[in-house]
């Protein structure tokens, strides 16, 4: 296996590494904003796979369209997620995800 | 090794390296800023894959929008002096173990799968064809996307406003 820009597997491996690092962020971080950063890494790795398969696999642009929908949803997710983080911060004065355990005041 | 391969290696190293900083840095400001390297590196990978419009969208939305939003949230929720202690990680050893096993499985399956390649696709501008697809085959998801963005905007405003207690 060669690691070059003309091989599908090199892009898939970069995507797999990004996904693993994002998963590690989500699993181990206790800061809510860091968890959201991990989610962004995971979404980016999925997008790399979409665009790589669109380029090497089918040759049409459907994968790029899906990648753009994922980017759109990531923007919406970031806006709502960070708004929730700010609301939690106002309530608990911390954004440690283990500290926010109650559902309602 | 020709120049494009060297640039590809550089972009891959920048992408994975800054993602590693995001995952391992004890300082959340460093994490947030190294997300910039990851997003820019992924945009470079899109250019290598002949997806010029997606690369532009990636730079505009991720680097220009989401990253600024994340930095905003970091600045709003932390006293800057506390920054070293606020990004702690729990259960790092078991997490690393699970993720390492998962990564090995992923890479092994990627290497062993016989991927089919249809043909050599020439790099050509994609913007016009993407616009056609958005207004023909993907018209309904495209319109739904605007509704989702509107709902997310209103939701973010409602969630983050100051609670007025009477």
Features:
heterodimer; A: 105 residues; mainly alpha; 75% helix; B: 166 residues; Four Helix Bundle (Hemerythrin (Met), subunit A); 6 helices; 73% helix; globular
Describe the structure.
Chain A has helices spanning 8-28, 32-58, 62-92. With 105 residues, chain A is mostly helical. The mean pLDDT of chain A is 86. In chain B, helix 2 runs antiparallel to helix 3.
Topology:
The complex is a heterodimer of chains A (105) and B (166).
Chain A: H1 8-28, H2 32-58, H3 62-92
Chain B: H1 3-24, H2 28-48, H3 52-77, H4 92-112, H5 127-135, H6 139-160
Helix pairs in contact in B: 1-2, 2-3
In short:
The complex is a heterodimer of chains A (105) and B (166). By secondary structure, chain A is mostly helical. In chain A, 75% of the residues lie in helices and 0% in strands.
Q: In CATH terms, what is the fold-level topology of chain A?
A: Helix Hairpins
Structural class of chain A: mainly alpha
Q: Could you list the spans of chain A in which at least 5 consecutive residues all have pLDDT below 50?
A: none
Task: Name the shape of chain A in a single word.
Answer: elongated
In whole angstroms, the N-to-C terminal distance of chain A is: 57 Å
The shape of chain B is globular
Q: What gyration radius of chain B follows from the Cα positions, in whole Å?
A: 21 Å
Please give the number of β-strands of chain B. 0
Mean pLDDT value of chain A: 86
Q: Give the helices and strands of chain A as they follow along the chain.
A: HHH
Per CATH, what is the topology of the largest domain in chain B? Four Helix Bundle (Hemerythrin (Met), subunit A)
Model regions low in confidence, pLDDT < 50 over at least 5 residues of chain B: none
Beta strand % of chain A: under 5%
Pairing-aware structural class of the strands and helices of chain B? mainly alpha
Overall pLDDT score of chain B: 85
Specify the CATH homologous superfamily of the largest domain in chain B.
NADH-ubiquinone/plastoquinone oxidoreductase chain 6, subunit NuoJ
């Amino acid at each position: 296996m060669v690691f070059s820009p003309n091989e599908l597997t090199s892009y898939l491996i970069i995507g797999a590494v990004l996904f693993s690092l994002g998963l590690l962020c989500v699993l181990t971080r206790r800061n809510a904003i860091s968890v959201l950063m991990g989610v962004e890494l995971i979404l980016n790795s999925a997008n790399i796979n979409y665009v790589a398969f669109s380029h090497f696999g089918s040759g049409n642009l459907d994968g790029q369209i899906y990648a753009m929908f994922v980017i759109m949803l990531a923007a919406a997710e970031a806006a709502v997620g960070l708004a929730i983080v700010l609301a939690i911060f106002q309530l608990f004065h911390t954004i440690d995800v283990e500290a926010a355990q109650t559902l309602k005041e | 090794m020709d120049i494009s391969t060297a640039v590809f290696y550089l972009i891959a190293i920048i992408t994975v390296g800054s993602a590693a900083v995001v995952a391992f840095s004890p300082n959340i400001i460093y994490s947030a800023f190294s997300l910039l390297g990851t997003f820019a590196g992924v945009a470079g990978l899109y250019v290598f894959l002949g997806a010029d419009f997606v690369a532009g969208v990636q730079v505009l939305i991720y680097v220009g929008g989401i990253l600024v939003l994340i930095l905003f949230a970091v600045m709003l929720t932390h006293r800057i002096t506390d920054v070293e202690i606020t990004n702690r990680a729990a259960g790092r050893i078991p997490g690393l173990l699970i993720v390492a096993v998962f990564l090995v499985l992923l890479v092994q399956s990627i290497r062993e799968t016989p991927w089919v390649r249809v043909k050599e696709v020439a790099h050509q501008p994609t913007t016009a064809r993407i616009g056609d697809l958005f207004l023909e085959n993907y018209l309904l998801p495209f319109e739904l996307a605007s509704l989702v963005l509107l709902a997310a905007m209103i939701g973010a405003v409602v969630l983050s406003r100051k609670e007025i207690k009477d």
